[in-house]
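Per your request, structure below.
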């Protein structure tokens, strides 16, 4: 954590005085549930055992949800039965909002490889889901899977297996479980099996992941192609580069089609990026495409068409994410690769994107330049000079 974050956290903590608590009420740490001695002074409803856990929670999720926790953790004074019902309904809505926010934050941090930082958000998602749906509901499974994935990334495989067991048991007890949940379950089982070097078992789970994801989202969907990407990584571990390359090509084509559609709707102004693409998906796309590009560029037999496809994807992605400079960087790489492939239909779309990115970058530069009339210090603007 940087010094700015640490100073911000230190300004939000206060000592928890035991004598100030109601009789019989013991405050617990937000992260480890041990006795708490510190309190967030901003929301005053979140407690910690020490400064390390407060800092970890602040970076992980608390900064984003601090004020949202107040209405669901503040005791309501006694009112009429109808007021209690309204309060209960409002609390459920607040908790459902927290589930979505914390889940998205945890997923984004996982894609960024920030496994330790993802834990507070995943734990908050699980607690809120338990409060809303109960301790055995299938709605808890996504949070269990986030916690399992984080622990796989941290190398805590025993803890990851425990969370996966809870997810599997919950799914087994749920008749007619949705294919969306089943695809998520098998994808994380595949990750766990890959980490334990059970590669054949991992491939089986990734195959099931693709099957259920195809049914839920369609064959040519970016969610489904995530399973292909993970399968390709396993085949690389097995030394089966031809199969891996074929799967990577499928992933690249799926993302290329998706980003092309997004770029078209974005430039036409019919749909904003936020309506089609959340931060977690942006991070997933960047990590996936960069990994494929790195593997392709290190291969002795480079596929120039696939290189161009992946770099064009990255150029479109960064343009849509508001970075025309990076879009130009990857656009040049894409154009360089595709020029080595005769009569390819990617040349014109790449050139069009580069022109659009160059115009956008120039527009940003012009906006950043100060106006000549505003060159005076603020204290001298719009003032009348006394004679």
């Amino acid at each position: 954590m940087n010094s700015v974050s640490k100073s911000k956290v230190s300004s939000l903590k206060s000592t928890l005085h035991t004598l100030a608590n109601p009789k019989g009420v013991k405050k617990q740490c937000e992260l480890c549930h041990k006795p708490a001695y510190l309190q967030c002074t901003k929301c005053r409803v979140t407690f910690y055992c020490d400064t390390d856990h407060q800092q970890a929670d602040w970076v992980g999720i608390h900064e984003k949800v601090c004020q949202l926790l107040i209405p669901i953790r503040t005791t309501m004074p006694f009112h009429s039965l109808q007021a209690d019902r309204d309060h209960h309904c409002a609390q459920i809505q607040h908790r459902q909002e927290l589930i979505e926010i914390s889940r998205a934050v945890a997923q984004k941090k996982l894609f960024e490889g920030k496994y330790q930082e993802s834990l507070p958000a995943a734990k908050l998602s699980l607690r809120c889901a338990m409060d809303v749906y109960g301790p055995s509901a299938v709605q808890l499974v996504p949070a269990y899977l986030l916690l399992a994935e984080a622990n796989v990334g941290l190398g805590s495989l025993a803890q990851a297996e425990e969370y996966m067991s809870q997810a599997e048991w919950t799914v087994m007890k749920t008749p007619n479980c949705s294919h969306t949940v089943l695809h998520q379950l098998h994808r994380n089982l595949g990750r766990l099996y890959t980490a334990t070097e059970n590669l054949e078992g991992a491939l089986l789970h990734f195959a099931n992941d693709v099957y259920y994801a195809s049914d839920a989202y369609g064959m040519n969907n970016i969610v489904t192609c995530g399973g292909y990407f993970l399968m390709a990584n396993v085949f690389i571990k097995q030394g089966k580069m031809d199969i891996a390359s074929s799967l990577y090509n499928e992933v690249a084509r799926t993302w290329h089609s998706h980003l092309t559609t997004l770029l078209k709707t974005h430039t036409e102004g019919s749909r904003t990026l936020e309506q089609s693409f959340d931060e977690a998906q942006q991070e997933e796309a960047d990590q996936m495409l960069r990994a494929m590009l790195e593997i392709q560029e290190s291969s002795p037999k480079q596929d120039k068409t696939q290189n161009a496809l992946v770099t064009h994807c990255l150029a479109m992605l960064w343009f849509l994410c508001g970075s025309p400079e990076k879009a130009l960087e990857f656009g040049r790489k894409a154009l360089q690769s595709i020029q080595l492939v005769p009569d390819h239909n990617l040349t014109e779309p790449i050139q069009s994107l580069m022109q659009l990115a160059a115009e956008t970058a120039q527009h940003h530069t012009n906006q950043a330049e100060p106006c000549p009339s505003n060159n005076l210090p603020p204290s001298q603007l719009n003032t009348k000079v006394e004679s």
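The chain is about 70% helix and 0% strand.

Regards,
D.
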